[in-house]
Structure to design on (396 residues):
């Protein structure tokens, strides 16, 4: 078992989820924006802040880590210095555990539950002051923290530098898939409103192709995967725009090929890998939906148009169009909303209510497990296969 030598994978670590490549492909614009945001830190040790936002697997985490590491080496090679800590707020999702994580960067033995959050913040302040250098805190998946009453920590950290002097400062890099302004207090919002938001668009097929090609070069033996197979990985991932999905397909396909012992990754290995990942959304969940719910979900899938989410209002407009297409009466708003909530309970989509800058509230719908276009195709197929007749309310 496992004894045969590897012929496909040269370095599996390079396919690992947390691996940070030397260069983040196709993210030059975002790296440049971060450079602009953090210039005051590099030139004068002043505190800076950035908010990184975008859909699943669009490279927020990897870009933030790469940027901070590059900034540190730049400073070191120019006679300067800085320090940083990375906190994943999905894991450290309370104010207390997030602060403890930051403190443990300075004091690894700091006991759990020994101090209050206030005392820990003071202690962090003393460490930053005595370090006399810029300190960057990366709060990744910050929305988890904010949903869990974590707004105080962001406020405290964003004000931190006011009590520091010299080259000691605290800068914040906040990462979230969704907008967080509705969850912050006014003072913190103003810190993150000064043009320092860095957006991560979904990757195009061509960008995904470049990302997997670069990763294959690092992780696999030369020549074991053809250009056509890389194209295939990119087109499977295209509907998601998600690099994590693309790299996962590459990794699974490479493992399947390794198991077969043929010495190359074939198109079928890639297809099998893709199908394994797609099947996460079980067809049976869709088959259980009635016609109105299927139409609603189809409308939402179409309304997404490659975006990470769509507003309830925009989805409802498309719903009216799809109802017409299938000769069905469009239900009223409250009924449509009930369908959306039902489907959220089944894990087919997620909704989020956000406070907008003008004070109003907007409901956003997103679909994380499957590319909306694939979902749309599946639904059209099921509706067809069930023999639905236009104009009738029932399936045949
Ligand atoms: N431009 C890129 N070049 C190379 N690798 C990338 C790039 N973008 C993403 N990746 C890789 O894809 C995976 C997902 O990226 P990352 O974790 O940065 O996404 P994310 O935007 O933080 O997603 P999430 O919101 O789900 O946390 C990682 O393994 C990362 O190394
Ligand atoms: Mg991330």
């Amino acid at each position: 078992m496992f004894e045969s030598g590897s012929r496909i994978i040269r370095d599996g670590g390079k396919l690992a989820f947390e691996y940070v490549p030397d260069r983040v492909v196709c993210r030059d614009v975002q790296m440049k924006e971060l450079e602009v945001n953090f210039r005051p830190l590099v030139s004068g040790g002043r505190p800076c802040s950035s908010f990184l936002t975008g859909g699943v697997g669009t490279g927020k985490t990897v870009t933030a880590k790469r940027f901070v590491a590059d900034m540190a080496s730049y400073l070191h090679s120019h006679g300067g210095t800085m320090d940083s800590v990375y906190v994943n707020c999905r894991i450290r999702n309370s104010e207390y555990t997030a602060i403890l994580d930051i403190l443990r960067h300075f004091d690894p033995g700091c006991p759990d539950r020994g101090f209050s959050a206030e005392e820990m913040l003071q202690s962090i302040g003393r460490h930053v002051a005595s370090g006399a250098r810029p300190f960057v805190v990366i709060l990744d998946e910050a929305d988890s923290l904010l949903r869990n009453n974590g707004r105080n920590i962001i406020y405290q950290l964003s004000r931190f530098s006011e009590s520091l002097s010299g080259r000691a400062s605290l800068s914040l890099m906040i990462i979230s898939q969704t907008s967080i302004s509705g969850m912050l207090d006014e003072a913190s919002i103003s810190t993150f409103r000064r043009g320092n938001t860095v957006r991560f668009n979904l990757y195009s097929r061509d960008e995904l192709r470049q990302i997997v090609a670069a990763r294959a070069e690092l992780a696999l033996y030369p020549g074991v995967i053809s250009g056509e197979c890389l194209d295939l990985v990119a087109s499977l991932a295209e509907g998601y725009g998600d690099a994590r999905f693309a790299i996962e397909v590459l990794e699974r396909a490479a493992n399947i090929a390794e198991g077969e012992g043929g010495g190359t990754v074939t198109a079928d290995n890639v297809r099998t890998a893709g199908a394994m990942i797609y099947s996460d959304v079980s067809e049976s969940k869709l088959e259980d939906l009635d016609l109105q719910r299927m139409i609603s979900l189809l409308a939402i899938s179409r309304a997404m148009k490659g975006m990470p989410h769509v507003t309830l209002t925009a989805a409802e407009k498309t719903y009216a169009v799809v109802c017409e297409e299938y000769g069905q009466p469009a239900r009223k708003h409250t009924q449509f909303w009930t369908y959306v909530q039902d489907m959220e309970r089944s894990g087919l989509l997620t909704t989020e209510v956000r406070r907008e800058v003008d004070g109003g509230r907007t409901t956003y719908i997103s679909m994380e497990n499957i590319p909306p276009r694939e979902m749309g195709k599946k639904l059209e197929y099921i509706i067809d296969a069930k023999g639905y007749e236009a104009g009738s309310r029932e399936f045949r």
